[in-house]
Amino acid sequence: MKRIITVLSLAAFGLGACEKVDKLTQFTVTDRTELKIEAGAATLLPYDLYTPPVYSEASRELTFNNTKAEMLESVKLQEFRMVITQPFGRSWDFLKDIEVFIDADQLPETKIAFETDITDQINAILLLKTADVQLTDYLKKGTYIIKTRLTTDKLITDDLDVSITTKFAVDAKVLGL
């Protein structure tokens, strides 16, 4: 009986230790970029806009977390936030639908975030639904491009500057563990 209790205790301790080690290998990579939406954009017709190349913070975070790109096990988009920074106080009331894609050299374009039937009551901050897709290869590249496909239901009368923040949940093997 003592052996069974000892074995069960050691197994429970081992599982708890594994969970703690897993937490040490998980972290968040936050990248930021800008997008310009020009006045006069067509209404009710989807059109694409591209960000400049995004130089991911992944390599810095990997170094900080004592790992490297080839040790990445899983990367998923946790949050995709868009904020209209200029003109101040402008809302997303012109937007009907949005789809967001990630693209990197020699990798397929992949849908990562979206929102449909956007209401006029939304303010300057737009938090999109994220797609459950694996993005490890995109962060390993170090540089990627964000493509947005917008459909508007109102004419845009001013140029809009938009700040984009992406947060990726990363799980990696840590060197030495």
From TrEMBL:
Identification of the protein by name: DUF1735 domain-containing protein
Native species: Flavihumibacter fluminis
Source lineage: Bacteria, Pseudomonadati, Bacteroidota, Chitinophagia, Chitinophagales
